[in-house]
Amino acid sequence: MSFVKLSASALAIAAVSATAATARDQVQVAGSSTVLPYASIVAEAFGENFDFPTPVVESGGSSAGLKRFCEGVGENTIDVANASRKIKDKEIAVCAENGVTDIIEVRIGYDGIVFASDIGGNGFEFTPADWFLALSDKILVDGQLVDNPNSTWADVNAAFPAQPIQAFIPGTKHGTREVFEEKVILAGCEETGAFEAFKAANGDDKKAAEKACIALRTDGVSVDIDGDYTETLARIESNKDGIGVFGLAFYENNTDKLQVATMSGVVPSTESIATGEYPVSRPLYFYVKKAHIGVIPGLKEYAEFFIADEIAGPDGPLAEYGLVSDPELVETQEAVADEKVMGGNS
Amino acid sequence: MTDLTPDAAPGRRHGGSLLTLDARTRRRNRAEARFRAYGIGAILIGLLMLVVLVVTIVSRGTGAYTQTFVTLDVELLENKLDKKGTRDIEAIKKVSTFGYTPLINAAFETAAQKAGIETALKPKDQAAILSKSAAAQLRDYVLADPSRIGQTVSFRFLANSRVDGYLKGRVTRESIANDKSISAEQLDFVDQLIAAGMIRKTFNLDFILGSDASDQRPEAAGMGVSMVGSLFMMLVVLVLALPIGVAASIYLEEFAPKNWLTDVIEVNISNLAAVPSIVFGILGLAVFINYMHLPMSAPLVGGLVLTLMTLPTIIISTRASLKSVPPSIRDAALGVGASKMQAVFHHVLPLAAPGILTGTIIGLAQALGETAPLLLIGMVGFIASNPPDGIAAGLLSPNSAMPAQIYEWAKRADPAFYERAWGGIIILLVFLVTMNTLAVILRRRFERRW
């Protein structure tokens, strides 16, 4: 019965090492792939400047990160969730169910979303309405809601070249998709008047109208990219007519391959996003489990270091990489120092 | 020879000669020639693909093995690093890497003057051609021995990825037209430094031995730590999968009664070998991390998951090699009075060993290239940043693995990481080819045929 003996001893070895491994001494982070570069820059600098080990940063998307964050309290759960959107009430409820009640919300700054196409192709000057007319499932033609008939950009806007519409947009698991829907498609929907038509068609239901607005066409003109921006870039390189949605930092690292389109006449840059001129931007967050502060060494120091002036300030490495620094950073710093949790009671 | 096909119209060859081919034979000959051509074509296509693959990998990846370095004399100013002059290590530690950047800026200013380089760039913009890791390198140097404060030391810093790309021909003055990270003036400055002999592109051992670096410093990233992670995982796989797999197959092959239960086990083992590896990842997450509370991102867990994945491969190949040992060997051993166990361990197992080893090595090679299950147990991300100190830490502290590291690099924004991903593939392929060659050599050397 050597098999039984051996597997038993193997399990015993595993169990022994499990008990030996209960004390985790590095911070575990997971979540948004948009926040990942920033978090890894901070983690690296944190490991260099503090006596704590370098935190582990995983990606996987905002929703996936928050799901793991809400799995419970304890050393085998993550300490910090990165998110490119605000945590949802539904997620807070799941968290509370699993005993994760005290959550510290930290806004690290803003990130711009840009529209870019191949460097050798046509340049574009978009407005949200153009994107709505190009990608929405149904648009308003002569007062009637009809299936989107546009096949080239010239159909959308006479000022554009007759280039076939081919858009590579982030998939639904990305926080970026939500911003794209809200700040571009929905805005365009309202601009073109389609919103009112949808509202009328849905019996004055605003929610339903919004949902109808952001329903994108499914005839292959708009392609969901579930991977990272590198995949979007590869798609554009193989299909020169393609226009992709990128994070500002990604575009700035690939200016030799991509040209950026303006939105409502504004060129995206950290400056134009900071002033609010460039409309398509969103805040980036990370969430800290308060119950882990004091248990996991270095967790609070990591959170404080992340939003310190020398890191997240306008001259820090994060801003250099493409983060738009938060003008209210001081308040965030105070909140983290006080370990102020969400929901007011600290 | 007489006609052996009586039913095929006997009088058919009437008037014809055996020496001239009839239409049917010619057709059959043509079919055979065509088939051979297809075969050669298939092989040629396969070879062509291989050549394309190897050429692509080598041409894109070799760049990662050289790196641009800047040699610079830095004065370790006391008034910046140790204001009180006490050389107290705790006080010096308080100066973060940001406190070291002025030293580097100053060093550039003096170096430019010394070399007689005239540039309109501010010292800060001159220093921007360096990697962000320079300040950390400087700080580590000072902390290692605080008594060095006050001296002027010559350092070899990594150049920033754009400058490195410029020396490798990836970055040109046209391509940086819209780039915020580097300007044409900085490239002019780089040209001047090259002329002054301060910038040099040399072999980069750190790519093979170093650790991963954040998105801002692709030039500093290396495979070393993730290689250690892979090594520890393979160790776990070897230590667990080999004994368990061999014991299981010996029992099943030599001792177990042949009944429906062993049949079920047999079928299940064959099925397990075909289970997609991501399934083992989910299993690992549920059992090893959530239930047994093993640490996340640890090579131990990765090794356990890969063990599950490799076991069926090892069991199947071990059973095949046990089966190939002729029964006469067993019978002879039993005939001279050996017990069944003695017969197996003294005679059958040694003869089957080469086959078992080959199977194990191929199983390990398979596990080495696996990424999917590691995604779920937290081994993919910005992880491989510290080399582990000791075996326990190697097993338990977070680490990545070679294929996971390559995947991670391939999705980062800076094109310099892309080059490193290809470079990493070369290392991974070298490992895989070595392991498979070893398996072939072992088989050739020790295998016996009956």
UniProtKB/TrEMBL annotation, chain A:
InterPro entries: PBP_domain, Phosphate_ABC_transporter. Residues 1-20 form the signal peptide. Residues 17-310 form the PBP domain. It comes from the Bacteria. It comes from Ruegeria alba. This is Substrate-binding domain-containing protein. The keyword Signal applies. Keywords: Signal.
